[in-house]
Amino acid sequence: MKWLTRGGLLAALCVGAAIGWGLGWRGLLVLLAFFISGSLLTQLAVGPGGGAQRTARQVLANGGVAAGAALLGGAEAWSVAVAALAAATADTWATEIGSFSPWTPRMVTTWASVPAGTSGGITLLGTAGGVAGAAGMAGLAALLQPRGGGGGGAPVSAAIVVVAGLAGMAVDSLLGATAQGLFECPACAARTERAGAVCHEPVVLIKGWRWLDNDGVNLAATLTGAGVAVGWRLLH
Prior knowledge:
Distance between the termini: 44 Å
Number of helices: 6
């Protein structure tokens, strides 16, 4: 079972080293919980041996913010890293669990029915999965968080971790519906989210920003989760 490309593995090792250095074994357990749960859900959704391997860009988009927080250290390191990983987990769980929905996804901005897998499309089952992912990370963080300000900073409220996870998931859906690049083949109208793809002809941009792909949206989601934790710290 190979979940990562060679570059993805190298990126994962770097993220793990940064979090381990800054947050110790507690941070590594939270990171592993995100990675293993997300990978297992992907395998469950697409079947054994299916699904694309995660690349370095994907690994950094989901874990880079947490790694950066761990490296910067300070009192906010734990809360920011955990919040970022909660956002990544909520988004991943929502996507993979939502693939089992018996109902057609609806675009988050217009509520119009869209094909399964469309960026910005949400389902009740997927949303529930995202809530479960955020809550699971919050529970794990509450169990593992350092006491007395040691091991990467002061503890964070489990409720804030859940809010951070859900905020990241919401931003992911909104950006997917509005700003993420969508391209179309001029000859057959087939659509893709990959810039530079060639179908019958080179695809052309029909919506969003050319440079904003799914990895960029995932990065924005984790930044949002981290931002919730930073905001909470500033108010307390």
